[in-house]
UniProtKB/TrEMBL annotation:
Catalytic activity: orotidine 5'-phosphate + H(+) = UMP + CO2
Annotated organism of origin: Natronocella acetinitrilica
Residues annotated for substrate binding in this entry: 4, 26, 53-62, 112, 173, 182, 202-203
Keywords, in A-Z order: Decarboxylase, Lyase, Pyrimidine biosynthesis
Active site: 53, 55, 58
NAD is among the record's keywords: no
Ranges for domain Orotidine 5'-phosphate decarboxylase: 2-218
Name under which the protein is recorded: Orotidine 5'-phosphate decarboxylase
This protein's pathway: Pyrimidine metabolism; UMP biosynthesis via de novo pathway; UMP from orotate: step 2/2
Record lineage: Bacteria, Pseudomonadati, Pseudomonadota, Gammaproteobacteria, Chromatiales
Top-level taxon of the source organism: Bacteria
Protein encoded by which gene: pyrF
Amino acid sequence: MALDYSEPAQALTFLGQLDPGSCRVKIGKELFCVGGPDLVRRCIDSGFDVFLDLKYHDIPNTVAGACRAAARLGVWMVDVHACGGRRMMDAARDAIQGTPRPPLLTAVTVLTSHDQQSLAETGVVGSIDEQVERLTGLAVASGLDGVVCSAREAALLRERFGSVPVLVTPGIRPSGSSADDQTRIVTPAEALAAGANHLVVGRPITRAADPKSALAAIVAELQSAA
Ligand SMILES: O=c1ccn([C@@H]2O[C@H](COP(=O)(O)O)[C@@H](O)[C@H]2O)c(=O)[nH]1
């Protein structure tokens, strides 16, 4: 569940309605900028596993320090951008390995908002699938736990890398819901069938008239597909 709220109070009010057994929560750049580490700790203290989604992308030393700080906060998962390269990912992995409770470390491959044209505009030659596969190979070689990708690439990655890498898939849209700014969207049941491990869902829940029911409907779809 992506807690993409502008105010910590909104996030905490919503969290108060949720059972930590029904979902984990993701804190991204906007909410972290206003709520900071205190909000992360409050979510953890309420029993939720927290994915701190700050998508670090910087020189190796800086990313290592940021990952270490996230690990010390007690988060369940933290991520970097795979296009930061091998040395950056190696440094991130080494940094969290030295912490008491290392979080899962994942790498963003190609953002789910990208389509073929927008990716090409960034100078990447080749298809989205090729780029996702290439960056997943780098992440796996660096010993990361997995990658963030669209569930559209999940089957390909399972075929190429097997069952071990954790596949985290944003861009989830229940059938009939708005794509918003996402392009590579997949329904919850399809994502599960393709081999995704952790589905990230934000606006289909946060912008629903009844967010709690929207989440329950997604959980029910996943349970009947499992
Ligand atoms: O490739 C990526 C990586 C991260 N995200 C994040 O996931 C959520 C998706 O929110 P929706 O409202 O369900 O679209 C959001 O926090 C993104 O920052 C992503 O969408 N794609």
